[in-house]
Each structure stands twice: as structure tokens, then as C-alpha cells.
Amino acid sequence: MFFVILCEVNATVHVESGFGISEDLHIQAMEEYKYKVNESFYYQANLEVTDMSFYFSSTEDITLFCYHVLVNRGDGYLALPTETLSTEYIVVTHIDNHTGDQILLPYTKTTQTAFLVVATEDNTQVNISLKIQGPLMAGGCGNGTFFNGESRTFTLNRYQTVGAYCAEDITGTLITSDKPVAVISGHNMKYTTFIKDGMQEMLLPVKSFGRSYYLPVPPSITGGAIYRVVGSVASTSVRSPYVSNISNISFSVGERESHDITVDSTTGPVYIEADKPVMVVQIAIKTPSLALVPPTSLYSSSYDIGKPVLHATYDLKKVYITVIVPTDKVLGIRPQIFPQFKVIKGSCFSEASVELTTPGFYRLTHVDDVPFGAMMYVFPFSDTQCVFTHPAGLNLTNDVASGGCTVDRCQYSSSCTDLTTLYQCDCVNGSGGAHCETDGSCEDQVGNYTCNCTAGYTGSFCETDIDDCATNPCVNGTCVDHVNNYTCTCEPGYTDWNCSTDIDECVTKPCVNGTCVDHVNNYTCDCDPGYTDWNCSTDIDDCATNPCVNGTCVDHVNNYTCTCDPGYTDWNCSTEIDECSTNPCVHGTCDSGVNNYTCDCEPGYTDMNCSTDIDDCATNPCVNGTCVDHVNNFTCTCEPGYTDQNCSTDIDDCATKPCVNGACSDHVNNYTCDCEPGYTDWNCSTDIDECATNPCVNGTCVDHVNNYTCDCEPGYTDWNCSTDIDDCAQNPCVNGTCVDHVNNYTCDCKPGYTDRNCSTDIDDCATSPCVNGSCVDQVNNYTCVCDPGYTDRNCSTDIDECASTPCLHGGNCTDMVDGYICTCRQGTNGTRCQTVLDPCVANPCKNNGSCTQTSGGFNCSCPPGIVGDSCQTDIDDCASSPCRNNGTCSDRVNAFKCQCPANYSGFLCQFVLACGCPCLTGGNITVEQLAAKVALLRSILLVNKAILSKTIRKKTSAPDERRSSAGIGLGGIVCLVGTFAFFLFVDCLNFIKLMPTKKVQQSKIIDMTRRLQHVKHPPN
Questions:
Q1: Which of 179, 247, 477, 588 is the most exposed place for a label (fewest CB within 10 A)?
Q2: Which stretches within 110-241 are classed as H helix?
Q3: Among 123, 229, 222, 221, CA closest to 177
């Protein structure tokens, strides 16, 4: 990241930061200066306070640009001076799908919008009220901890920052503070197919929003631009006086709401004006960037711009400058580098662009000091696939910041009115526009003129017939414009001047057996049950649809009954009675018929219910043997010499059929076998395995004689089980997409549906989301009908009825559910504390204060030692710490008391009792010890003499707090006499100090004490 600094004269710029940087930069006049910042200083926290900011201060006026240059793109912005910052901002970000031939941008945590707040003073309170545009797609802000409608408050010191990364478009997020702050917002990294690009801009405070803007066409490589208009207050009307070849621009935006306008080579530049202050930002479509668009109120007459060399690889290869100048003043631009100006239709301004080819400093001015707009388009790479966009400068003077009327904003109006956030022009009769620009007769003025248009016409040259239909007055009809008038051709079913009245087609009561519902130019009848046709006059034949499938239908009013045929049951006789439900077939399969059944017996069984085993030996099949009966079979035990199933064949060499699957040829004591196809070996007993080659792809192979069959796995078919059966062929998914599997399918349900076939609408009210209200289920959504006194999506927010401050005269409001209660101050009553009483009746003055009624309430005269509006506060007489030598102070009313530690005494604990007065007249003490004690005593008394005197006066003048005492008492008199004795002693010490000494190198105090000792104990 680079800061580019420009100045017209030599300057010293001091840069410092909250993380230790402090240095001076020396700027040469008319030369760009670049200051590089390491990436480790970037703000990377999320809803956390850090010190990631830079502060620049200069000896001269400078222009400061910030460029964030990466290998894979970046962005830049114009830094605003601290004196133009304020306490209210509206965040602007952008997530869109305008990527040309590139892939659409998903709403994910890798496509993060961002905002950053920078404090300029210590102890700054910052409140962030989050607003998310559209539905929540990926998780809100702060890693999914900060959601739409929530507020967060932070305390920042100078240089400190706080911000957040978000997964949604957070345009409209409100940032307020109690001290000026700077706000940067945008898209931290915008991912496209091959590009990772940043979109950042330092935002204008709300107080600097404007009412008229010119939206230029950016360089063609950008693919045009989206201009996002953000409203500062509710019901803001925005329009363009000129009807372009695309569409007429006219819309409304609410407070913190936005509206997008696309401007490119097909539309041409656009002029818009608003009736209330708005902010406009430009978002380049193909080469992502975010830039402030200056309102006309912030145009300047001079700009300092530069084309710096930032980096050997990532240089600012191309710089384009676009200017917007009054059409009759285009020749005043210096230097005259703009080849051609194009008039912006619907305005008195023209647009021109030029590329700055030579690196260095550029000074762009107007010779007549005429304000004009300037936008910069900086291309940092030779492939021109990235653009940094920002204004070249802004006329953010203190006058504009504080209102605007000190600057001549309303050039053609009768008066100007300062507003909180900007200014307002009060135009003369017949004028209009944000700056009263369509006003007055055509009068020559200094460097300009105005046109006084006749009724029905407008425009700078009265060239435009006012479209009286522009406000769409015909509610349900077609408007035909006339000069200063219009007429409405109503749609069928409507009447009156503006086609706003719906004709009631139900007046004639056309519905015979039903309720009439009026529509536009029509009506419908909501028929009573059992009736039909347009006017509900026909009794519905409930048997007309033949509802009784196997029976006779009997019609009733709005109903029918069925008499079922034998063997059928249920309401519509559609269910055949299952005669096989009792399993009557013992050894067979039951086939149910209408009112009957038949049994398909298993082989070997017979009779009605297949309960009798058939005797297969009854026909005596064994010719020469004994028959043994089995189920559906028999066996013969042959007599010796016989064989075959019925023991009827004489044995020979082939009689035993040694050729299992072939023809036997008898020979002498031998035989040969001619095998059938599919068999092999000597006796033709081995079946050739046709399954050996695994021909069944998804199934089990079953070998047969000279053939095979495949038993397919579920979900597969054809001869070799190679075809997957399409389980989605019958479209089983009612509200979803079918996904075929092997012998199965799954349904990818549309949002709001569930179950195997997506046929069940999910009940979004099942979790009872409406806390204080009733829930109405919808498909993949729900709405809440809130109980009185509650609001928000889930009816969880109690409406604050105290927000409108209903309690008068300082009453305290307590919010209730669907109401409020006022707790009135003394002297007022009523449901809203609207009645003012004598405030002194309630004795509001505490501590014996005297109450006096005033026009605004009451006034308390407090006794000594007591302060406060209601005499509620006892002055802390210990606040000045009067007790010396670690004495403990106890506060009294207009007095105090000191509790002294050991070896100290006095009202202020200022007296030392460790030695006492006897040390002056006797005892074992050296001259040095005596001198030290005298010096200590003298210092205490001299230093605190004034305080002690004041304290004594206070003590003697204030009454004692004890109930049984009066005056200072005997102890007070003793204390007073002792105090004056000490003062006399101190004065003696001062006198001793002034006496001459013989030894200059010794202290006067030590010398005087020695003299005293000499007098007390003369030498021998």
C-alpha cells in the first residue's frame, strides 16, 4: 500500500501511528511523494479494536491519496482531512454479478464486504447498526456473530480502529459516534475467474451529502458503471430532468436505502437531482472499483493530482482525468488539455476526459475560479484489467461541513437556510431545483444567467415541456399530457378524474346462493356449499362424476351416498373385498374374485382348498416292481433283471444308460457314447459351463444345457444385465428433481418441501418462531402477525412506547407492553405529568434547605456545608486531605475531624509528641538531635499555619454536631489557647533564625540551639 502526497510548496509532513511509527517526511513542491506501508499493518481482526491506522499532519495544505496495489489488483481512495470528518456515516458496499463473461459471484465467506472505523480522539464511543441488503445468504458479519438489525458499541482511543468482514451487501449500515471518526468501506477482495480485486473508499459523512450529481461515463474498458444512490432521510425523491434513450430516471429512496443507476456508452452521462441530501458512489462493472462521486455542492475550482511511479512492476501505467464543467466555462480550464467536451443532457454542464501520459505533478484549475468536478481513473497494470477510481478532490470546507449558507450555494434563490447536515435553498416564486436553478426571468448575471419559464415548461433554457403525467396521477388509467394539465382515460371498471375509484359490480346483488366479491370491471360469486354456476343458481349434482365405482349413487344437497354391489366396500364402493384374506388354500395360491375365490393347487394336491395329496401309485405304474407314492411323484423298486422308471425294460449294456447325455452304441462287452450338444466326457455326464466367461455384467449366471441365463441384480435388466433401470422414469418427485440410483432414486427437494417424494410442505411454523404473535406458514418461509405492543420479524421486540418521550416536565417513562407509565417528578402529576403543582409542598429540599417556587419549578437555598439542586449533597470537607502525618479524616456537616496516629496530636495531627517540650530544657539529647527536632517542629508549624487558622475559624464558627453540646466547649477553649501559644513559639523561632551566627557553615537553627544550651548550662 502506498500513500501519495502532493503539495504546491515545500512542506514537512509528520506521520505517526498507534503501533510505534513516528517520522517526518520532507515534501518537495510540485512533486509527488510516495510513502510505502508494509502489509503487516493491515487491519485483519473482526469486530476487534486494534491500533491499525496512520495519522498525517503537515505544515502546509496537502492532497493525500491511498493506493492498495497487489499482483492481482487492488484499489485506491482520496483521504479526507480530519477537520471535515463527522459523527454519522452510512456504509456503502457492493456484491454483484456484473462480471461480463466471467463466472457469477457466489455469496460466500471468500467474497467479503468490509468496513473500518478510525478514531481521531481518545475515549470515542462508536455505535454500529448493521443493515443487510436482501436475504441472508452466507452468515452475516464477524464470522456469523453480527446480524441484520443488531447494534454494537465500541470505545476507541486515538489511532484505534474497529471493523468487520461480512458475507452480504451491508449498504445502509449506520455508524455514529460522539467524536469525529473516519470510515472506510467496500469489498475487501472481489473474486472473479482470474482476478482478486479490492474495492475500498473513504466515505463522506452524512453532513456532507448533496442534492445534485453528474454521473460521468467511465473509460470504456470498465464496461460502464453502476451508480448507487443512498438516502439519508425517508421519502427522498430523485429524478433526472432529461429522458434518455433507455428510460426516464425517477425513483424514491428511504433512509439508509439505496437505488442503482447503470451508466455506460449507450446511456451517456446522466444528471440527477434529489429533494433531500443523498450520497452517490460509482462501482465499475467489468474492472471492480468503488469511488465517491462528488455532489455539485462540493466541486472545487482547483485540484492537485499526480501520476506517480509506485513500483517497477506495479506502476500506475495510465491515469485518466474526467472533468465536469459549466458548458459556457469549458475554455477556462487550465491547462487546456481536454480535446472535446460533451454536453450532459438535462443540465448546463459538459463532460471531458484525457489521459495523463507523463509522470509527475499536475495542477488543474479554472481561470475564473469556477467550481467544477473531477474524477480520476488510475490503471496500475499495462493490461488495463484493473482500475482504481476516486475523486480528484473535494471542496470540504468548514462552511460546507457546518451547513453551507456561508458559501453562496443558492446563486439564483431569494434566501438560504442552514440545515443540520447541509443547506437548503428557499427559492423565489416560480423557481425550483436543488439550487433554485430553474428560476426567474432570463437575466444576465456575473458569468451566468437564468430563464423564467412560462407555466408548463422547465429546463435551463425552458426547452422542456413539463410532463404533468410524470407523477403518474392516473391511478388506473392512461395519462395524456397537455401543457400545464393532463387528462385520464380510465381502464374498464374505474371512474373519477384520476381513475382512482373502483366501480362496485356487486351493487345489484347478482349472486343467488352466495356472496358477491367485487373485482375491477367484474365480479365473482363465492357460492354456498352445494351450488354452482356464475350466479350460484344451480344445485350441484354430486353424483354427476359417478363417484360410486361399484355401486348406485344417491344425490343429496352438497353430498351423496353409495349403495355398493356385492363384493365391494368403502365410501365410494371402490374397494374389492379380499376373499383370500383368510388364506383358505392349504397347499396352493388363492385368487380372489368378486364375492368368491379359487385355489391354484401346488403339484400333487387337489380338492377345493388343495388339502388332499394325490396318490401317484393309483394307476399301478410299476410293471415289474413295487410302487412308492410321493407328493406329485412315485418311485419303483424293480425286481431283479428289470430296470427303468416303471421296471419294464430288460437290462443290456446300454440299458443302464451310461451315456448320461448322449446316444449309446452297444458293443461286445463295451459301449460308446455320442454326446448331445453342451455335454462332454466318456459318459457325456459333464455339462459344459457356459458361465465360465462371466457373461452376466450385473447379475448371477445360471448355466443351462448348451446355454445360460442371467439372474440380474435389482435395478438392472437386458440379456447380460448391463442396463441400469431408470427409476426416475415415472417422475416420482412431486416438488423436486429426481436423481436415479441402482434400483432406487432420491429426490432433491425444492426449498420448503420434504419427504421421500418432496410432496410435503415443511411447516415453517413448527418451531413456533413467533414469540408474541401468530405464525402463518408459507412455502419455505413464514410471517408473524404480532400481538399489540410487539414488532420485528419474530414479534420478539417490545415496542418502546417511551421512545416518543410522552412524559412531560421531566417525568420518568416506564415502557409496558402496548403502553407506558409515567412516574412524575415532585410538583407534577397526570398520566403524562402534564399538571404542574406547587413543587415546594412536597418539601423537595433536603437537609433543612429552604424551598422557593420559581416559574420553572423550585429553587433550594442550602445551609452551610450542603450543596445540590435539592440540598442532597454534604460537601466532603475531607476532600482536600487536611489531616497531616497519616491522620484519618472524618467528614462532618460543614466541618471535619482528624483521628491522629500515635505520637501525633493537634486538629490536623500536626504536632509531634514523641519528645515533647522537656527536650528543650533538659534530658539526654545532643545538639544535632535538638536542632533536628526544632527544625521539624518549625516546618510543621510554619507550613500549616494558614490551614490551621482557617480550620480553627471553621471549628469555632460551625455548630457542634453533637445534640447535647453548644459552642466550642471547654476543650475548644483549651485548644484555642494552646494553638496561639504554638504560634507564639513559632514567631520566637523566626526571631532566633534572624540573629547573627559566628559560623557561617553551620545552619542558623543549629547555632541558635547551641546558644540556648550555653545560656542554660554555662561553661565551668
A1: 247
A2: none
A3: 123
Q: Which residue has the cell 368378486?
A: 594
Q: Which residues pair with 486 in a beta bridge?
A: 481
Q: For the residues of 656-671, what is the DSSP string, one character each? A: T---TTEEEEEETTEE
Q: Which residues of 489-500 are buried (b: 16+ CB within 10 A; e: fewer)?
A: ebeebbeeebbe
DSSP 823-868: EPPTTEESTTS-EE--GGGG----TTPEEEEETTEEEEEPPTTEES
| Sheet of strand 63-70, all strands in order from the earlier edge strand to the far edge | 33-36, 2-6, 63-70, 73-78
Burial of 427 (0-12, 13-18, 19+ CB in 10 A): buried
Indicate the burial class of 598 (C-beta count within 10 angstroms; 0-12, 13-18, 19 or more): middle
Q: Which amino acid is at 438?
A: T
CA-to-CA dists, residue 551 to 541, 570, 572, angstroms: 17, 10, 8
pLDDT band per the 50, 70, 90 thresholds, residue 107 = very low
Among 874, 893, 896, 866, smallest CA distance to 883 is for 896
Q: Which three cell numbers stand for residue 902?
A: 500515635
Query: Exposed/middle/buried for 90, CB within 10 Å: 0-12, 13-18, 19+?
Result: buried
| Contact between residue 191 and residue 273 where contact means Cβ atoms under 8 Å apart | no
CB 584 within 8 A of CB 591: no
User: Please, are residues 669 and 658 in contact by the beta-carbon 8 Å criterion?
Assistant: no
- In terms of phi and psi (left: phi > 0; alpha: psi -120 to 50; beta: otherwise), the region of 831 is alpha
Q: Cell 451529502 identifies what position?
A: 209
The per-residue DSSP string of 539-555 comes to E--TTTT---TTEEEEE
Strand partners, 703: 708
Burial of 378 per CB tally in 10 Å (0-12, 13-18, 19+):
buried
Do residues 111 and 251 make contact, with C-beta atoms less than 8 angstroms apart? no
The domains located in the chain, with CATH, are: 2-402 (no CATH), 415-465 (no CATH), 579-614 (2.10.25.10), 625-687 (2.10.25.10), 765-799 (2.10.25.10), 840-873 (2.10.25.10), 877-1016 (no CATH)
Of the chain, the end-to-end C-alpha distance in Å amounts to 94
Residue 426, C-alpha cell as written in the block: 428557499
Give Cβ neighbours of residue 747 (< 8 Å, ≥ 6 apart): 732, 733, 736, 737, 738, 739, 756, 757, 758
Dihedral sign (CA 468, 472, 474, 477): positive
- Helix, strand, or coil (residue 41): helix
State the pairing for strand pair 360-366/11-17: unpaired
Percentage above 70 pLDDT, the chain: 77
Per-residue pLDDT tens over the stretch 533-585: 989 989 899 899 999 989 999 988 889 999 998 888 888 898 888 888 888 89
Grid cell of 387 as nine digits: 482500475
CA distances from 310 to 40, 70, 198, 318, 489 (A): 19, 12, 18, 12, 65
**Half-sphere exposure of residue 323: CA atoms within 13 angstroms, side-chain side:** 29
Q: How confident is the model at residue 124 (pLDDT cuts 50, 70, 90)?
A: very high
CB-CB neighbours of 918 under 10 Å: 9
Q: What residues have CB less than 8 Å from 474, skipping those under 6 apart? A: 486, 488, 489, 490, 498, 499
Within 10 angstroms of residue 741's Cβ, the number of other Cβ atoms is 11
Three state DSSP letters for 66-111: EEEEECCEEEEEECCCHHHCEEEEECCCCCCCCCCCCCCCCCCCCC
**Nearest in space to 237 (alpha carbons), one of 208, 266, 257:** 257
